[in-house]
Amino acid sequence: TFSAAAALTGAALCAQGAATSVPVFYWPVVLTSVASSTVVFLDRLSWAIWLYHLAALLCGINTGLNAWLSLAGPVLEVPLFVLVPPLAWVMFSTGAGAVFAACAADWASDGQLQSETEQLSTEFTGSLRDAQSSNVEDKERIMAEIAASGSEEAVEHAVDVLFRAGMSTSCLRYATLQGSDVRGGGRWSLGFCCSVLLIWVVHPMTHVVLDTSCAGSGRCIPALKVVEGFAWAGIFAWRAQDQRSFMTNSAAKLAVTPYLCIWSLWVARALILGLPMARQHCVPDCIGALVLGPTMLATAVAGISGVASVPVLGPVLVTMVLAGVSVGLAPQSERARARTRSVASELVDGSPASELSDGDSGDER
């Protein structure tokens, strides 16, 4: 969709050979394509694939338009070109197209995971004693061993985490014991990962090359942001599978989304007030490099169990990051709280979160 839109837009403009109509639709196309990027950070929806195609279509049109402007020369006199020249728009729109393609792949994987979960949970009540087995003797022996160990509740809790997250590890189980909802915690988002690299590596690199951010000693700010982006990528590569979902989701929702909102509002303010556009990247970059970037890295280092162990706010933050804002703000049912207390008393018995390895996936079942 992205490639077709970009090619057709570029071909149409080249065939027209004139720029009379470009000023009319340039800014609606650019602003709409930027706004469409927010669909990446919405909670997973069954029809999200159509939003990804629509956003890719808009970004493709934006890419074709700015590619033509890059080749045609100074056709438009736009103040924002001081900050983001057409060639930079081509880079960002192409990167956004890749993000949407990755999100479409995530959407397909989510559908497969949901289908597998439904198949596994068919006729399963949540109790091990109601589980079916092709060999009755095997079931009786397994149930006897579980009963003898006194860990039936813990095993049921592990199975519940498996259904919710797609895997069951010590970190994910600990987070649920703290009251977090870890649904989808076993699968990381390629789209979110690409969006972090786009905004925290590619975007500030253009500021360094074009020198459109802070002046003087502040010129290191966008470079610092690039370093943070590479540091996050290194931590991501080192982390185990059960940590990557939390890493990508937290980085996208706690760093990338706020940065895009701050940048958009700050630039819109300058445009409305008629301020000079030179170095308007500086303030958003400072907030990104000095506040949002460290927050992104701190959550990556702490991991899911470290964040979940923070009193009151930690479990809510983990739930909002993994399961969505609507789930994170919803009240926890009394049944869920009772089960959490029961399993917690049996499993952790006051053990601190530090005793749980953030990268431990060895007990995945």
**How many strands, which pairing sense, and closed or not: the largest β-sheet?**
none
What pattern of helices and strands is seen along the backbone?
HHHHHHHHHHHHHH
How many β strands by DSSP?
A: 0
Rounded to an integer, what's the Rg over CA atoms? 24 Å
Structural class: mainly alpha
User: Distance between the terminal alpha carbons, to the nearest Å?
Assistant: 39 Å
Share in helix = 55-70%
The amount of beta strand, in percent, is under 5%
Mean pLDDT: 78
Count of the separate structural domains? 2
Please count the helical segments. Answer: 14
Indicate the low-confidence ranges by residue numbers.
333-365
Principal-axis shape:
elongated
Describe this structure in words.
By secondary structure, the chain is mainly alpha-helical. The chain has two domains: 1-114; 146-349, no CATH class. The chain is 70% helix and 0% strand. The protein is built from 14 helices and no strands. It has helices spanning 2-16, 22-36, 48-72, 86-120, 136-149, 152-165, 170-177, 190-210, 220-238, 241-273, 282-308, 313-322, 325-329, 334-347. Helix 1 (2-16) runs parallel beside helix 3 (48-72) and helix 3 runs antiparallel to helix 4. The longest helix has 35 residues, at 86-120. It is elongated, with a radius of gyration of 24 Å. Residues 340-365 are annotated as: Disordered. The chain crosses the membrane at residues 24-42, 49-69, 89-108, 185-203, 256-275, 287-306, 312-331. Keywords: Membrane, Transmembrane, Transmembrane helix.
